Every structure is written in C-alpha cells, then in structure tokens.
Amino acid sequence: MKPGHGEVVIAEGDVELPQDEARLVAEFRHQLDAGLWAAVPVAQGDGRREAKMVRAFEDVPRDAERVIFFPRAAGG
Amino acid sequence: MVLAFAVSALVAIALISDMVAPRLLESWSRYRARRQRVPELSLDPGRDRRAEQTARELLRSCVGEEEWAMYRDLGLIRVWGRFPRAHSGGEYAYLIYPHRPIVAYEPQTGRLLGEYCVEFPDETRPYGSARLPDSDDVLAKWMVLTGDEPRLLADSNMHLPGRQHDVSAVTRDLWRLSRWEQSRMREITAGDRLPTG
C-alpha cells in the first residue's frame, strides 16, 4: 500500500523455485527493515476471512497468494 | 563658470539617479522574473481517485463478501472482538471507518465503549502525502484487528466515545447497520426459497 497509489506489486514469484524464493525472502526482509508491517489474508474453514500478521518469511503460509505490506500503526 | 555648472550637473545627476535607480532595478528584476522558467507542478487530479479505486479492489479481494457489502453500502466495516475480558466480559465489536478512529461497542445494548485512534502514516511520503487511500486505511485496520487485535489496541490511543466521532452519528450508524443486516437476511432467506427447477 502506498499513499497516492494504492496497491503496488513489489515482487512476484513461485516459492517452490529456489531463485524465486531467495528473491522473495530478500524483498520481504527489505520491506520489514523499511519499517512496514506484513499480513497475509486467509480464509478460515467456515469461510470467514481474516488476516495473519507475519514477522518472518517462515511465518508466511506456503500456499499464500500474496503478502501485503503496509505502514505500521501509530496512535492518532 | 564651467566648473560650477559641471558640479551642479553632477549633483543633479546624483539626485536623479538616487530616485530613478531603484525603479530601474525593480523593472529589470520584474523583466528577468518574467523570463525565468516557472517550475511546473505535476498535479494529477485523477491520481487519488485511481489510487482509491485500486485500494477498493484490494479491500474487496481481502475481506469477506459480507464485510465488502457492508463497506460498499454503509461506508464502514464491523469486526467482532475476540477477547471478551478486555471489555468487561461481554460480547463486543468494532466499527472501522476510513481515516477516523475505530469505535468499540456492545452489540447487545448499542453502548459505545471507546474510540481507538490509530493511523498508518507512510513516513517515506513517496507521493508527497503520508495518507493512505480510504480503502487502504480500512484494510490496514481490518488486517491488524483480525490478525493481532491486542497489538492494534496497544498502538492506538484510546479515548472515551465522543472524542472525534459524533456519538449520535455512530448511534445512527449502528441503527443503519442493524437495518442493513435485517434486509440482507431477508434477501438471503428469499434466495434460499426460490424454486430451483
């Protein structure tokens, strides 16, 4: 998520391919180092949707379609 | 005689130049300014609208169908609370508004419990603003509330109801929400009864 732009695709790849996974891991760490938070939208068994906050690439479900990075929360 | 005339002429020139020189300098500056290039402002009036449209699509693809319809029709999303002890042991929920505090309330009574003021500022300001599009702001709140509710509550500033929201407006939103749910339930029930043959 970017102000004035909405969604921006940062990186795409298949985690089953080693070179893709390495690139995705590097980009994931880069985004978190930049101070962003990461979340993965998931669907529960009953169809309910929720997000899973992830702090490490290993926390991302292998079948996740995407990881969303967004600015961290601050008291308003 | 000639010397006296020359001195008088010099004095006159000095006096005149004292009066005229500033005007000449000012005119010259104005002339140069008109020739200077004025930096163009790259204002794009459609940028924010396009960003919001993109954000709405992202929100729609992440939240459930009911939440999306709620946001589309009412401009807010309700998220159920998961830690009953946090709010005097009873069932509670949140109303998420774009760029306004999250409101916690008791669904049974409609009593407002508090306002959670939270923002998601992008300090890098890559596009000249730290403000996310409305739907991105809603999605960010939804993700943290459903993914890590205690974290959001810890990072926000809590206030009593009425701090930034108009209590009567929120009460009216709760009424609109209940009407919306009743209407939606009727539609779903009617859909189930439709003959399939």
What tags apply to this protein structure?
heterodimer; A: 76 residues; alpha+beta; 4 strands; B: 197 residues; 2 domains; 5-stranded antiparallel β-sheet; 6 helices; 5 strands; 55% helix
Question: What does the model show?
Answer:
The complex is a heterodimer of chains A (76) and B (197). Chain A is an alpha+beta fold and 76 residues long. In chain A, 21% of the residues lie in helices and 26% in strands. Chain A is built from one helix and four strands. Chain A has a three-stranded antiparallel beta sheet, with helices on one face. In chain A, strand 1 (36-43) and strand 2 form a beta hairpin. The radius of gyration of chain A is 13 Å and the shape is globular. Helix content of chain B is 55%, strand content 12%. Chain B contains six helices and five strands, in the order αααββββααβα. In chain B, strands 1-2-3-4-5 form a five-stranded antiparallel beta sheet, sandwiched between helices. In chain B, helix 2 (47-62) runs parallel beside helix 4 and helix 4 (134-147) packs across helix 5. Chain B is elongated. Chain B starts with a helix and ends with a helix. The chains are: A alpha+beta (76), B alpha+beta (197). Chains A and B meet through strand 1, strand 2, strand 3 and strand 4 of A and helix 2, strand 4, helix 4 and helix 5 of B.
